[in-house]
Fold this sequence. Notes:
- There is one protein chain.
- The chain is mainly alpha-helical.
- It folds into two domains: 174 residues, Helix Hairpins; 97 residues, no CATH class.
- 75% of the residues lie in helices and 3% in strands.
- A hairpin with a 5-residue loop joins strand 1 and strand 2.
- The two termini are 14 Å apart.
- The C terminus is likely disordered.
- Keywords: Coiled coil.
- Pfam families: DUF2046.
- This is GOLGA2L5 domain-containing protein.
- It comes from Gongylonema pulchrum.
Amino acid sequence: LCKCGATSAAKIKALVARIHELEEELEAGRAAAQQLRRDKVNLTIVLEQEQEAMFHNFTRQINQLNAEKRTLEERIKQLVSEKNEAQPLAGDPVLSHDIAAGMEVRKLREEWQDQNKVIEFLRQTISKQQQHLDEVEAKYQLELLGLREKFEEASEASRQARDAIQAALDQSVKSWRTYFVEEYAREKKAAEAMTELIRRLEKPNHMAPSSGAAAEPASNNAHSVTSDGGFDTDEESVDEFVAHSANEISVGFGSLYLYPKTDDSTQQSVPMDSEQSFFAAFSPTDSPEVSGTE
């Protein structure tokens, strides 16, 4: 019984330690999730600020380029109008002016195309920044999902460990209750047998005859135990009842005071002091079998 109790206590301690470990892992997961959320918020704020600043910068540059584009368009229209109005003659300086104006228009068109390329590049940069922000958001969502799954697994493991501890405690209580009920029944049976023995030994007809009195027939003083545990006063002496009751009393009280423990192999009485007899009466081998996860 002591071994069973020690084993159950050791298993319960191990389960409690496991629960503490799971709770620590759970707290670590919660802290990591909170830190991840804070990092996500901070990163989102930084990205939004950078995106907003870049957007304002790009918008300003685009507006500036559009203004320059409109200026170039007006300049081109003006040069074309001047060219159409002029009627140059061969060798006239106006012709040279128109040629120079045409070259300037071509140059302005090239600059305008370059400005369009810059605008397109800025738009692509904004698109890439937005794509990067979406990728970061998706990454943090996956990490949060993983932490949530770990949290659920730790919660389930903690619940199972608590259920196992409760089942072990219930089984242990049940085993101890069964053992003490059986022990009480044995003690009660032994006490009743001892009471009956003392009552019958104290009867007057069990007293030794006086020296002056005549000896009575053996059949009048003889007593024996019947099959139902009673006395048959017409056969043998009361010593047979004492010998018959010795086993029940010895089993019930664990050979504490009346009878020493018997060696089953030799049927000889083994000398034992009161302390050895006491612990022998409560040996763990007498306890019921305990099985399960306790």
